Amino acid sequence: MSDKVVLITGTSTGIGQAVAVAAAEAGCTVVATMRDPGRGDELRKAAGGIDIRAMDVTDPDSVLGGVAGVVADYGRLDAVINNAGVSVLGTAENLPMAEIRRAMEVNYFGVVEMTRAALPHLRATKGRVITVTSVGGVVGQPFNEAYCAAKFAVEGFMESLAPVAATVGVGVSVVEPGAVATAFVANAKVDPVAAVAEAGPYAPALQAYIDRTLGAYTTSQTAEEVAAVVLRALTAEPPVLRWQTSDWAQTFVATKITDLDGARVQALTSDWVR
Ligand SMILES: NC(=O)c1ccc[n+]([C@@H]2O[C@H](COP(=O)([O-])OP(=O)(O)OC[C@H]3O[C@@H](n4cnc5c(N)ncnc54)[C@H](OP(=O)(O)O)[C@@H]3O)[C@@H](O)[C@H]2O)c1
Questions:
Q1: CB-CB contact of 22 with 224 (8 Å)
Q2: Distance from the alpha carbon of residue 83 to the mean position of ligand 1, in angstroms
């Protein structure tokens, strides 16, 4: 890995930060991007020699300029790790359209923009596109309509791109965690009491969902455990398209893949909201 130049998005916290540290420890040259490099102190302390740069994945100039800058400075790009993402919590009827669009802008169009910008350089190095999606990119989950739709979109994009990219030597993978102990849910800035109070006819279901979700996060994975799977995806030969990051994630995703009429998933997730 020592000659590999790896660009990672969303590295100020959580999984992105852990991936940046793991890739640096594996000997990669790491370009860790974040919206505000002023928030990079934790990463600087965790691992030396990481090149921290500004990037907002919803800003095309930032993405295109960021990729061009890496190639200009290092002469190559071997992998892009699309990690930046946001949680958008709420059900269709109550979520403003702007929030539904924000879920897509960050979680889907941001990934697409980055991947398109990187592909010419990844062709040159026979590199990798690794995207942190979610089990929510395979199984739709209550009160996550906007988030799961965006993650489904990413999964569809990457699954479709993979065979095409392979013809030019580029490996494409998606990494699907379940609950991970990061600031992800807190960053969604949802006040559960207020959300339930404003949920109208959906209040009992939302309360049940919140109770269940808090329980799920008591057995969550660490960001470092997820980062280890990302590193395996980065180095696997031949590339593997789909990676679940835990036994729980694997069982959950498998339910969907063998659920041809959708009944098994509905039986499973209906229990979350009653
Ligand atoms: N935690 C979980 O339970 C879980 C489960 C499955 C999948 N995931 C996925 O894992 C990935 C990382 O999430 P996490 O758990 O590590 O949560 P996190 O700590 O909230 O990290 C998300 C990162 O994305 C960045 N980001 C948000 N909007 C951005 C934008 N427009 N441009 C660039 N960066 C942006 C955030 O940066 P700022 O500091 O600038 O906001 C932050 O560094 C996400 O794609 C998420 O969907 C998480």
A1: yes
A2: 6
